[in-house]
Each structure stands twice: as C-alpha cells, then as structure tokens.
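Proteins fold reproducibly. Take a tokenised chain:

. . .
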Amino acid sequence: MKTISHDEVLNRFVGEKGTIKRNEFENELKADILAFQFKELRKKKHLTQTQLAEKLGMEKTQISKIENGKFNLTLATINKIAAALGARVNFDLQSI
C-alpha cells in the first residue's frame, strides 16, 4: 500500500495550491482555527459566551456564531475579541 502525503491528499481532493478552490479551503480552515482558539481561550478564562459578549458589547448569539465559524470577522473585531480575552493576534503577510 502506497503512502501519500497530506499535500497530495489536498491536491487531489481540494485542488492544487493557488487554485480558487484551494484558496477558499485554506481561508475557511484558518477562520475555523481562529474560531476554535477564541472558544478555547474563553473557556480557559472561565468566561461564558454571555460574559464575553457583555465585555465586548455584543449579543451572546454573535459570540456563538463567531465560535462556530458562522460569522465573518473584521480585523477590528478579531483584535477586540483577543484583547477582551487578554490575548493579542499576530498577522503575517507572506509572498506567494
């Protein structure tokens, strides 16, 4: 049985790097990872969604949508949530 790499699987089932489909997949994955990190940090800080929402001046339903990757976040909102959780976000632009 032949072993194939993770990149080979992505290329085959999602698309080659640089294709629209692959870029959309990778962007969605990054958003899901960020949402997961927000949720884990909130729990680590022993905050409920309601408490975090109150700190941010948002509705609990918005926090739920953010944590489930169902909310398009602006950079300002990402930084606002991170600050409320006592964290900071680093952005790294890379040439393609």
The two ends are 34 Å apart (CA to CA).
